Amino acid sequence: MTHADHTARLPLPALAADRAQPRARRRPAIVGPRLFILLSWIAPVLLVVIWEVLAQTGFVTPQVLPAPSKVVRTALKLATTGSLLEDLGTSLLRAAAGFIIGGTIAFALGILVGFSRLAEALVDRSVQMVRAIPFLALLPLVIVWFGVGEAQKIFLVALGVAFPIYINTTLGIRQVDPKLMELGRVQGLSTRQMITRIILPGALPSILTGVRYSLATAWLALVVAETIGAQAGIGFLAMDAREFLRTDVVVLTIVIYALIGVAADSVARLLERRLLAWHPNFGGAGR
Fold first, then answer.
1. Which DSSP letter does residue 122 get?
2. Which end of the chain is more exposed for a tag (fewer CB within 10 A), N or C?
3. What residues have CB less than 8 Å from 35, skipping those under 6 apart?
4. Closest CA relative to residue 195, chosen from 64, 2, 12, 5
5. How high is the pLDDT of residue 264?
6. What is the distance between the alpha carbons of residues 152 and 74, in angstroms, rounded to a whole number?
7. Calpha distance 244→247 (Å, rounded)
8. Which sign does the torsion angle of CA 211, 103, 143, 150 carry?
9. Choice among 34-38, 85-89, 104-108, 232-236 with the minimum mean pLDDT
10. Using CA atoms, how far apart are residues 243 and 261, in angstroms rounded to an integer?
11. Is residue 241 helix, strand or coil?
12. pLDDT, tens digit, for every residue of 13-65?
């Protein structure tokens, strides 16, 4: 395939970015991306070291905050018995199911509202009203509707996931550069081509930002859901440990939530780099 053929297949936002690439490549790289990754881990590692020293010297009692080494030993013990992996798998399945359901509905509504002012008038105000309601305020009603089984937990996750994706999808579509739209009309693109080559590619950075936010919200919603009537899951493990004053297990669950959040955000960033390789701020030239 020639360069001309490749260029003809790119979305119009990608064409604009592709023409800007030579300038981006000429910018000197001060430091490599690997150095930034190493620098980002300095603060967490330093915090763990200080925490371990304070715990080992007795400045922090185990009942208040156990040492990281104690938390690691607890994790290995629970992993050996299989209970930790079982609870982790249960929570991951709940989060995945809620994310798929809530994300699909939110993306469809965002597309609809982004393209149609009529849909915005019919849907947006109701969505914004529900978004303003705190999770804990909805919890009693959700329990009445779904009980304390899996449906209640998946519903809360889906609800939490939906709003960031809906809002960012709508904003992404509305904020597409009007000059690109005009260029598409001048080139005689059909409505379908305008959507697939201009609007959706132009909205993709905002949509993926919504995905990143929703991944964090999914775990926040799951923590709330698993504190009520759960028989398995990371949240259940934390609540059960609280009853027996097992602070090492409680801290372990917090660390697990943090690690899952970092892993999910890394996946979202990788998705951004793959899907937005043409964009100077996300592709290799922009980094």
1. I
2. N
3. none
4. 12
5. 87
6. 30
7. 9
8. negative
9. 34-38
10. 26
11. helix
12. 555 555 545 544 445 444 566 777 788 788 888 988 998 898 888 888 888 88
In angstroms, the CA 159 to CA 2 distance is: 47
**Locate tokens 């609280």: which residue?**
242
Given this model, what pLDDT does residue 108 score? 93
Q: Is the pTM of this model over 0.85?
A: no
Token pair for 172: 């992404």
Report which of 216, 230, 88 is spatially closest to residue 157, judged by C-alpha positions.
Answer: 216
CA–CA separation, 126 and 124 (whole Å)? 5
Question: What is the C-alpha separation between 278 and 32, in angstroms, rounded?
Answer: 20
Distances in Å between the alpha carbon of 153 and those of 95, 163, 212?
9, 17, 20
DSSP symbol at 285 = G
- Cβ–Cβ < 8 Å for 212, 268: yes
Six token digits for residue 103:
């994300």
At 57, which amino acid appears? T
At 194, list the tokens: 């305008």
Tokens of residue 24, six digits: 């981006």
